[in-house]
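$ ./design --mode recover --in tokens.txt
reading tokens...
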């Protein structure tokens, strides 16, 4: 993934304080499930299913977007909400990393580089994302 456009995306978004995480993936890939896992370890929901990215990298939900989280085959859920956060990490559930210790991967949104995790198949992904948010990633 070389770049992502400013605007609306089929994605969920959560925040740990002002640290925004955008969760990308196809329908049924687990975006909402990862969001609920992250909420259970301290994140707030920004948006589920559709997220908006602005020029300043703020993430918000669409104006008409519900303040709810949809879990497929279970229903709609209330969640702790946050209006916006600054996008700092993209987790792509359809992309798979093949290297055991990959180099840091970035994508671009406008002129801004944003860290991207190719997350398909990563066990304990909620804990990995929370750890990344809290402590960062070491570079070899």
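writing sequence...
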């Amino acid at each position: 993934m070389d770049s992502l456009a400013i605007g609306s995306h089929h994605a969920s978004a959560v925040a740990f304080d002002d640290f925004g995480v955008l969760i990308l993936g196809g329908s049924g890939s687990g975006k909402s499930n990862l969001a609920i896992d992250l909420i259970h370890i301290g994140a707030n929901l920004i948006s589920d299913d559709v997220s908006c990215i602005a020029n300043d990298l703020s993430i918000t939900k669409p104006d008409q977007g519900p303040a709810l989280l949809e879990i497929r085959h279970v229903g709609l859920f209330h969640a702790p909400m946050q209006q916006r956060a600054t996008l700092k990490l993209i987790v792509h559930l359809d992309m798979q990393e093949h290297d055991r210790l990959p180099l840091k991967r970035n994508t671009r949104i406008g002129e801004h580089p944003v860290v991207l995790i190719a997350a398909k198949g990563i066990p304990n992904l909620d804990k990995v994302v929370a750890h990344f948010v809290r402590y960062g990633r070491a570079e070899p």
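exit 0
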